[in-house]
Amino acid sequence: MVTKDLTNESIEGEPRSPRRPVTLKTISDQVGLSVGTISAVLNDSPAARHIPQETRDRILASARALEYRPNFFARTLRNKRTFTVGVIAHEIGDAYSSLVIAGIEKLVRERNYSFLTGIHRHKPELFEQYCNEFLQRGAEGIITVDYNFDHGMTIPTVAVGGHPRHEGVTNIILDHTSAAALALQHFTRLGHRKIAFMKGHPASSDAVTRWQAICDVAHKMGLEIDPSLAIQIESEESSPHVGYAYANKLLEGGLRFTALFAFNDIMALGAMRAFQAAGYGVPGDVSVMGFDDIALGEFHYPSLTTVRQPLQQMGAIAVQILLERIEGGKAASQEIAIQPELVERESTARVSGERLALQQTSFPARSAS
């Protein structure tokens, strides 16, 4: 049997007429209200507040039934706006950026905006390329993730994790001094004095600020940081493989430590695997703490103690600030600090008597069984 697609043909075999677009006038005719009233409700304008809820519900129900689609280009021409913002992140899929972008997407969608995305990989030429492309496409503002500007911006801009202060840029940062205090106080309460550190790649926007905060807090606490236990990450790859490799470097050096504070959760997870593969228990032999609080850390074994920065919230705050500047001409705050939170899980524990004695010696040899 041969079947025939009648989607674009009538029963008699004649082509169907193209469906006429549904306009505000179409809805107006159906509900018996003025086009202005329909427009106010569908565009959620201030005038809609004076329209009874029952009437608004009737208009919205009619729009849904008729499958009304707003004309974006007409809206743009009428308002001389594009309702579009640009988002430029280090990467799209890494654990840090993806959480920030999730917060951005939710609020952008709720506010009936759209956004364009690009990646900078900490390369100024890539950043400038995407900035120029987004401006050509009418972006009304820019949000950056994990990028430190070396110049000001001519359109409203919000930098999540940005630190240098520039004209036109609002930085949303974590309070790294509080974060360092939470981490180091947690370790010292558990008896740890020999603490190893994984320092973030210098291109990461938080790396220098966070390390300086750790050094400052340690000095105030009277906690000595052994330079040989502070290992500099040179890879920009966002993978547990990085933490695994650098943890092995710490172990190969015969270094003495009972705890590790990693630059982020991804590195901490890789480091835990390296310690376990070398025959050391986490947290029995070495306690491990990460930074960020990504979802994977909670479900790893052992679950990861970490310093949480509310990345989705920071993304949403970035949108809120940006749209306030776009729509209301609000003056740019230079910096907004977000407070961290310690999330204590299974990967940190009190130093045992045996490990207290070993804080001044190298790790003992153990089998990897």
3D structure, described in words:
This protein has 369 residues and is α/β, with parallel strands linked by helices. It has helices at residues 24-31, 35-42, 53-65, 72-79, 95-110, 124-136, 176-189, 207-221, 240-252, 265-277, 295-299, 311-328, 353-358, and strands spanning 84-89, 114-119, 142-145, 157-160, 169-174, 195-199, 230-232, 259-261, 287-292, 305-308, 335-338, 341-343. The protein has a 6-stranded parallel β-sheet with strand order 2-1-3-4-5-11, with helices on both faces. The protein has a 6-stranded mixed β-sheet with strand order 7-6-8-9-10-12, with helices on both faces. α11 links the parallel β9 and β10. α7 packs across α8. Mean pLDDT is 86; it is low at 1-17 and 362-369.
Order of helices and strands: HHHHEHEHEEEHEHEHEHEHEHEEH
Question: Under the CATH scheme, which architecture of the largest domain would be assigned?
Answer: 3-Layer(aba) Sandwich
Average pLDDT figure: 86
Strand arrangement, major sheet: 2-1-3-4-5-11
Find the structural class using helix and strand composition: alpha/beta
The level-1 CATH class of the largest domain:
Alpha Beta
Number of helices: 13
**CATH H-level homologous superfamily name of the largest domain:** Response regulator
Strand-residue fraction?
5-15%
Number of strands: 12
Overall geometry comes to: elongated
